[in-house]
Structure formats: structure tokens, C-alpha cells
Amino acid sequence: MKILLIMKVLALAILLACKAPDLTIPGSTTTLSTAPKLIWSDEFTKSGLPDSTKWVYEVGGNGWGNNELEYYTARRPENARIENGKLIIEARKEAYEGKNYTSARLLTKARWEHGRIEALAKLPSGRGTWPAIWMLGEKVATAGWPLGGEIDIMEHVGFDEGVVHGTVHTEAYNHVKGTQKGQQVTIKDATSAFHLYAIEWTADKIDFFVDNQKYYTVEKSVLGSEVAQWPFEQPFYLILNMAVGGNWGGQKGVDETIWPRRMEVDYVRVYQ
Questions:
Q1: Domain annotation covers residue 10
Q2: Signal peptide position in this chain (predicted)?
């Protein structure tokens, strides 16, 4: 009997060892053979300025290619700070460096190629606000935009409240040509509640999610495999910013009575 019991236990152990675990990236419908690994995060637990080991500022008021109205400042708590466990990016109506508005634009020091990138955020309301959670390829520095590639995980413009956009821009497909590839989803309480905005990015496709519900996919097999069509085989960095006005955010003007306005981010996490 003991020999039989030992044989059964060994057989069960072999069976379990041969069966791949049923593990799924959070919010994904894709089952993986290994667990997703959290490789980078900021939980924004320490009050004060954003963590300088994780974030850098882009500074200036040149319109950023979109005729935006703000001046992005550096290390200025009025525009970017950690408060009550949240990152606050705040746009303010004030004269500063020749502009009438200030805000912040934060970039991650880390770069990633493929993975799940997610941020839990509450968006600002009001005509003229234009918050974004997005990514640029590191080759933008040498190849320029749009050849370097752009992934917009979330964009929202205040004049169209509750409509969230997920988009990619490449040399072949971009908003200047009117050929960008994207989709939109309506979230009625986007400006009053936190929602999880995410992408899952592989060598073959990029899926877009809100609250773990997939609403859009772009595929390499559809767009094409040339760099001008699919520049997503390189490391990208993440950007959090809030613009004022601009070619899109200011299409219906800017309400000058609403400021300040803020985007709040509970956390940012990256899995691979």
C-alpha cells in the first residue's frame, strides 16, 4: 500500500510539473505561461516633489508643436507635487515666462520595450483642459516625430468631457496627415472618479484598455512592418502632462474662469 501511495504522489507531481500555470496579465484576455512581473512603479506615497530618481521635467513654453498656451515648469510644487498619496499635475492661470498659464510635463527616466503600462487617474474637467498619459520612442530624439513613434494611452479634451482616446502615431499614420490610428470610449465620470488606463504592448500588437476592458487594438500585420508604419520595436518612455488650449484642446476656446485644474494620478505601474 505504501509503495502504491508513493507512486500516486509521484505521478501527480509529474502531472502538475508538466502543466503550464494559467496566468493572465491583469485585465488581459491573453493567457501566459509565466506570471507578469512588476518591473517599475511609482505609488506616490511620499509627499512633496515627484521622485527625481524616476521622473524628469520637460520645460518651456514653445507651444510643443500644438500651439499650447502653457509654460511647463520644473520643480515647482504649484504645478507638480505629491499630495495625499496622489501625483497632482496642475494647470494654473498666471503670467509666467511670457505665457498666461503654467503646468507640468513629467517624463520617466526609465524606458521599456513591450509590456503592460497602466495608470490610475482622475481627469480634469473644463473647456481648454487637455491631459494626457502617453509614450514616445527614444528614437524621437534623433529621428524626430512622428518617425520615432507615439503611443497615446489616454487623451481627453475638456470640451468633449468623458470621451477618452487611445491612439498611435507613426510616420505613415499620424494626425498631421489625418491618418492616425485610434479609437475612443465614453466614461461618464472620467472627471469625478479614478479609472485605470492601460496598454498591453507586444511585438505584434498594442491593446488599449480602460478599467481592464479592451476597447481597441492596433496590429503590426495591418499597419505594416516598416519603421514608418510600426516604430514600436524600440524602448519608449512615459509622459504625464496637462496642456492648456492648443490645436485640439483649444478647438472650442479656453474657459478662463475655471483655473486651476488638475489631473490626479494614484499610481503608475509597468509589467513585463
A1: no
A2: 1-19
Say if CB 56 and CB 107 are below 8 A apart.
Answer: yes
pLDDT given at position 233: 97
Spatial separation of the C-alpha atoms in residues 41 and 52, rounded to whole Å: 14
Q: Which residues pair with 261 in a beta bridge?
A: 91
Question: Could you tell me if 236 and 151 are in contact, meaning their C-beta atoms sit under 8 angstroms apart?
Answer: yes
217 falls within a domain? yes
Q: What residues in the chain have per-residue pLDDT under 50?
A: 1-33
CATH code (residue 138): 2.60.120.200
Residue 19: what pLDDT?
35
Report yes or no on 9 lying in a domain: no
**3-state SS assignment for residue 141:** helix
Q: Say if CB 269 and CB 110 are below 8 A apart.
A: no
pTM of the full predicted structure? 0.88
What would you measure as the largest C-alpha separation in the chain, in angstroms? 88
How far apart are alpha carbons 271 and 118 in whole angstroms? 9
- Bridge partners (DSSP) listed for residue 38: 271
Q: Which set of grid coordinates corresponds to residue 103? A: 503646468
Q: Which three cell numbers stand for residue 141?
A: 530624439
Residues designated catalytic = 150, 155
Q: Name the CA radius of gyration of the chain, rounded.
A: 21
Looking at the structure of the chain, the number of domains it has is: 1
Burial label for 157, CB within 10 Å (0-12, 13-18, 19+), is buried
d(CA 82, CA 206): 30
Phi, psi of 151 (to 5 degrees): -125, 115
Cell numbers at 77, concatenated: 510644487
Residue 34: per-residue pLDDT: 64
Whether 16 is in a domain gets the answer no
Residue appearing with cell numbers 520644473: 74
For residue 35, what pLDDT is reported? 79
